[in-house]
Amino acid sequence: MIKLFISDLDGTLLGMNHYIKPEDIESLKELNQAKVELAVASGRMDHDIAQVLNKVGVTGHRISQNGAFVYDVNDNSIHSRFFEAAMAKEVMNFIEEEPMVKTVSTEDKIYTSEHNEWVDLISTQLFQNIIIEPALTSQFGNHIAPSKITLHGKEDDVILAHGRVQKQFGNKLDSFISHESCVDIMPQMINKGNGIKALLHSIGVEPNETACIGDSFNDLPMFEVTPHSYAMSTAHPDVQKKAAYVVDHVYEAVEDLKTKGLH
């Protein structure tokens, strides 16, 4: 039987302008009422995940920033990880010439070095404002402890930038295309899969008692944790291939689990 159901946010549970399908809300509430624990695993901030869980009206664990931070349903910190300041500075220097907006996340804030129209556009899809800090990199290790560095831009630029980052830092850090418009750069071994493993160990749930659903390349480590993995039909074909099943909506994954007698 499934004891834990994990959902990604953007492109999976969460649509544009923070829209959530009523059917998905009802399916998660049904799981909550059936004593199946819920979790959200996202590249977003912990604050964003908490807001979504509150909007849905359910309780759940939170795996934020691709596994950099893990909190259980009672707000206990299970795991946290930051960049070493020197490595974060090296990354920022390397991506300086990329034709994209660069943001730096800490545990609870998002920074960028200059304001432009793209920053405003990105901000509309977040649950908090991006802070403008012109001396951003110089604050690393002092007032700013980076946990995630993100490049935002057009899909073609995202693909090229991800390739360059992988080539330069492949054995020093992890990077993911978390959305067609984003490349997330993380400390080494920080991913949703390892974040979920930390959660499972803490709450005493086995991988085969877990189901998950996602739609992006940063969900692939999550798919590897459990045999009950679902990819959204809108996901890239390479993402779909790595999941056990493909569905159109979150609620369809819940219904499938019920049909199989796992829920």
Q: How many strands, which pairing sense, and closed or not: the largest β-sheet?
A: 8 strands, mixed
Give the low-confidence spans. Answer: none
Top-tier CATH class of the largest domain: Alpha Beta
Q: Tell me what the CATH architecture of the largest domain is.
A: 3-Layer(aba) Sandwich
Q: CATH homologous superfamily of the largest domain?
A: HAD superfamily/HAD-like
N-to-C order of helices and strands:
EHEHEEEHEEHEEHEEHEHEHEH
Please tell me the overall pLDDT: 93
How many structural domains can be distinguished in the coordinates?
Answer: 2
Cα(first) to Cα(last) distance is 6 Å
Report the count of strand segments: 14
What is the rounded Rg?
Answer: 18 Å
Globular, elongated, flat, extended or rod-shaped: what is the shape?
globular
As a percent range, the share of strand residues is 15-25%
Count of individual helical segments: 9
Strand order of the largest sheet: 5-4-3-2-1-12-13-14
Q: Which structural category do the helix and sheet elements fall into?
A: alpha/beta
Approximate helicity band: 25-40%
